[in-house]
Each structure stands twice: as structure tokens, then as C-alpha cells.
Amino acid sequence: MTGFNDNVGRSGWRRACAAVLLLLIQAQFHTVFAAPVVPTDAGQILERLPPRDGAAWDDIRSLQAALARNPADASVAAELARSYLELNRGIGDPRLVAYASRALAHWEGATAPPVDVALERALIAQTEHRFDAAREEIAGVLERSPRSAQAWLALAALDTVQGRYADAKRSCARLVLLQDATIAGACFATVQVMTGDAAAAYRFLSNNLARPESLDAESTAWLATLAAETAEGLRLHDDADRHYRAALAASTTPSIYLLTSYSDFLLRRGRPAEVIALLAGTPPADTLWLRLALAEARTGRSDPVRIATLRYRLELALRGQERAHAREAAFFALYLDDDARRALTLALDNWAVQREQIDARLVLEAAAAAQMPDATQPVRDWLTSSHSEWAAP
Fold first, then answer.
1. How far apart are CA 369 and CA 341, in angstroms?
2. ∠ CA 304-291-393 to the nearest 5 degrees?
3. Rg of the chain over CA atoms, in angstroms?
4. Is CATH 1.25.40.10 the right assignment for the domain spanning 8-32+58-187?
5. Which one of 8, 27, 107, 321 is separated from 134 by 20 to 30 angstroms, measured CA to CA?
């Protein structure tokens, strides 16, 4: 994936671009699992791993074999890493991110690896919340391959996550030259919804979703999720619900991002029982378990084992990885642990790294619960300067 190839079909190029943005959006919801446990009994079962079957794993095994034959094959290594990251989008297992890194081991420490390898390294860094490293990798890709649509998308998504909207718009503008109106427009739409032009973004998304013959399933799920979030921001709640359901219907395996976003919407609408039904049988990713635990609490069905597991995971993650999991820990402290002051501290730590609507909401709601309104000033300044149309809680 070094750039736009005129011999690649538009639908294939669009799917590749959509996959990049989906991976980057997914990176907001970093998943952690418990630390290794030393068993006391040789027969003790530590974890039941999901079966590694299906087409995705068949493709991975084929790529593994090809890479074993030629470890220096950059295209195979990048495709293998990409396959692991795409699988992680629906499972939320950080081992898959580690496997993606291992696929690129031949270029470990290389300052200028092949462009495909560098782009996958950027996506891995973004997934792990190493934003500076991701930005450095993307800059290197664009220096050597300035027509790489995936790299411009990756940079736009990274800037959006960090609230650098003017930079994000410039990156989106480069996509116009690559002659795919849907991808370029969707890139702009992700910025518009946070910068005072959500109505225009919603019109664009709705118009494209009204022409399903022009979209593949992955692009439909992506655009429908953006449309749902935008509709909620415009207080079009019935439309938001409709778009979320369309995104689920288009998804063979709904992404953790989609499940988390829809769960948050349902919780805000006072529909916790639907969250429990939505998340039944989904992977035990922290972001999903947090929403499930909150929905259970609101229906009087709290699971003390789930709460204890989440507490352990998040405390462990914060000790080992500083701010990377502050968003999830703030959510837990605010909504499940009734510790508003700790939630506010964590939410502000997270705000220093990520500046999206969910991050703003955490700060504002934690400050309100802690009765510390002055702490919200950085967020309110940001909402004003960005002309955001999201209402403060």
C-alpha cells in the first residue's frame, strides 16, 4: 500500500482507505488484559483462547508461510501485519498487535524501512497510543510517497484524535487530488462534525448512504457509524439509532469501536437492557466490558466478578503504561466506582493525549460529579475554539 495505483479498482482502493481509518478510529479504544498469572496447579486453566479458524486465519497462515520462506519480503510482511490489525479491530486482543509487530521484525530499528512496512508500523504505534512515533513514521512515508492515500488518511485521523483540526483538513484536502469523492468527503466529515459544520457533514454522509450500490459493506459500516455519531450530535436521535443499526447490519463482525459507540448512545438514551443484549457474546475487551458492567448496574444486575476484573486490569494498566488507559480508567472511576475526583484526575490526564467528544464528556461529567467546575476550563476553551456543536452534559 504505497499509494494510489491507477491499475487498482476504485472499490478496492476505497476498501483499503476505509480499513486505515477504521483501524485508526479503533485505536482510541485501547484494550488491556490481565497480567500473566503463575498457576498453582498444573491442571489449572488460565484462559480459553478463541478458535483460530475461518477465512481470516487461513489467510494469515498462508502469509506466515510465505514470510517464513522470505523474511525480507516487505509486501508480505506488511500484508500479514495488516491482517492481524484488521482482526484485532473486531476482537480487541492486544496479542494480535504484538503479532503484527513481530511480522515486521526484519526491519526492527530501521529508520527508513520500505513504505508499506513504515505505514504498518505507524498504525501499530497509533493502536498503542504512541502518537509521536506514529506521526514520525507517517511523515517518513509521505516524504518518500507523497501520493499515498492511506498515509494522508492516517495523518488526518491522527490529527483528529488529537484535536488538530486545521492540520487534519489539510491532509483531507490532499485526498481530493486522488479522485475519490467518498473517501475525501468522509475524511472532511470526521473533522466537520467537531468544528461547527456537522449539518454539512451529515448531508454528505446521508447522501452517500442513500446510494448503497456505490459502497461495499465495509465502507457502508464505516459511513453509517459516522452518520450515527453525527446525527446524535445534531440531536436526531431516531436517525442516529437507524444508522447504528445499518452499520451493524453491514458488518460481518462489528468492530469494537462500533459496538462501543452504539452502547454509549443506548446508555445515554436510557436503554441499558439493549446494551446487555447488544454485547452478549462479544469479546471481553475492556471498552465493551465497561459498558456492559454499567448497563448491568443500571438494570440491577451487577456482576461483582466483572467489576473486580475490570478494576484489576485497569489499575495494572495504569501502573505499567501511564496515560494510555486513562480514558477507560476514568470511565470506571466515574460510572462504576463512584470516585468522581479520581475520575476527574484521570480524565484530565487523558485529555492531555486525546481530544475527542468522548474525552470532553468524561472531563465535564467528572467535574460536575466532583463539584469542581473550574477544572473544565481547558475543555470548554477547546469546545469554543473548535466551534464544536456537541452539547456539554
1. 8
2. 120
3. 21
4. yes
5. 8
Domains of the chain, by residue range, sit at: 8-32+58-187, 303-393
Q: What is the dihedral of CA 238, 242, 247, 253, to 10 degrees?
A: 100
**How far is 27 from 126, CA to CA, in rounded Å?**
6
Cell 467535574: give the residue. 367
Sequence letter at residue 193: V
Is pTM beyond 0.70? Reply is yes
Rounded to the nearest 10 degrees, how much is the dihedral formed by the CA atoms of 107, 110, 113, 118?
Answer: 90
- Packing angle, helices 74-91 and 115-127, rounded to 10: 20
Q: Which residues contact 354 (CB under 8 A, 6 or more apart)?
A: 28, 161, 162, 327
Q: State whether the Cα torsion 385-386-391-392 is positive or negative.
A: negative
Q: How confident is the model over 13-52, as pLDDT tens digits? A: 455 555 555 555 544 444 444 444 555 666 655 455 566 7
CA distance 355 to 363: 11
159-208 confidence digits (pLDDT tens): 998 889 999 999 999 888 775 778 888 889 989 988 889 999 999 999 99
